[in-house]
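Hi P.,

Sorry for the delay on this. The queue was packed all week, but I finally got your sequence through. Input first:
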Amino acid sequence: MSVLSLFSLDGRVALVTGASSGIGRAIAMTLAEAGARVVLVARREEDLAATRAEIVAAGGDAAAIACDLARRDGIECCADAAPQAFGAPDILVNSAGINIRKPMLDLSADDWDRTMRINLEAPFFLSQRLAPAMIACGWGRIINIASLQSVSAFANSGAYGASKGGIVQLTRAQAEAWSRSGVNANAIAPGFFATPLTAPVASDPVKWQANAARTFIGRNGELADLAGTALYLASRASDYVTGQTIFVDGGFSAG
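Then the structure:
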């Protein structure tokens, strides 16, 4: 097998949540370019359609499922619809997420519950539903999107940080449960990238530059910086890598 073939996703089916914008969209387009047929999942149908159209225009294959992963029935609907376009997914990217930015004392029960449902419960239950088909085939990849806040606390992000800390441990638990069956689970922990989720920070030039200054590289992330890591974890190239969280943050977490 050639080195380049290790990174090919020809014949693979990838389901990506949060695929209508930001990191999820960027990863979906990367996997499609590498040859995967991609199932795009998010709430906003119009944005999903735009992402799908861009993938198809570039010569890729994509389908879209509009659903609300904050609801258990939305997760069930997504899992049921997942194989309809291209067959059962053998790559799952759990990227959908929210960050309700409030002081800890101001977080309501609803804020906490919604954050945990989208950021932690959806990756758990969707993976649980899709993993059996991967196990049956003897090969699969689960990629969870963690965060700098998986290991560090930031102001006004208490629920988000707790959910992302949980993602790191969920990734380890999935790896322990399924890797012997050929299904590897890993996480990507991005640094600061300009996305709709980080808009409150990115829109403040002082804060944004301060975050860039804390990296070793000297800048904040660009979505293209995630492509290599996402493709590596989705492909045969990572056959012996599981249970890991890879920080794509310009050295921010190592400082």
